[in-house]
Write a structure and sequence with these properties.
Blueprint lengths: L1 H5 L28 H15 L5 E6 L5 E7 L5 E6 L9 H12 L3 E6 L19 H14 L4 E7 L1 H12 L8 E7 L5 H8 L5 H11 L1
Amino acid sequence: MLRYLIKTEIPNSICCMPEQSMYHPYQPPRCFQNKYFNTIFTNLWRDAWLQTSYVRKRIETPDQDFLDLDLASAGSNKALLLVHGLEGDAYAPYVKGMVKAAKQAGWDAVSLNLRGCSGTINWQPNIYHSGRSEDLHNAILHLLEQEAYQYLAIIGFSLGGNLTLKYTGERAERLDERIKAVTAVSVPFDLENVALNMDQISNVLFRYRFLTEVL
């Protein structure tokens, strides 16, 4: 199940990385150089003080299912669309952090809950995965056509970053001009390697949590 969710093909055209970065490597404080401590502590600490309130909007999909969008409005014609990672949702700390930043900048923030992640069982048995970019497309269409946003930026995290890049690559020549920016954060480009790493004993805690939430 876990491998199905995170393993898929990404178009080669969007996997091009510069040979040398124009930025200096990030050097975290010593206490955050341990990847496990960094992951767990920041998740718990940020969640404790980030408060977010949403208005939920449900949109129906062409396959007779639905997607739940959580809106934090600033009364703007600009929207930041957030796409969470594996088994995340609109209340994931990293999503709430970006919602806060968007509202402070005067933008509406819209959090897309992927299928099965909104707290409500979907009507169809289909689930989300790294290659299911049509759900992202349906959410974008709703925001541009029904909500009439004139400026749209998209940020995808981890698996949501895969979806965001895949969608952008698929529509590179016909991307709506109202989409002004696309950002992907902590994207696992080599999905097969990620799936294999999740099976290692050192990652048993993360694997257990992911599988518990999926099932």
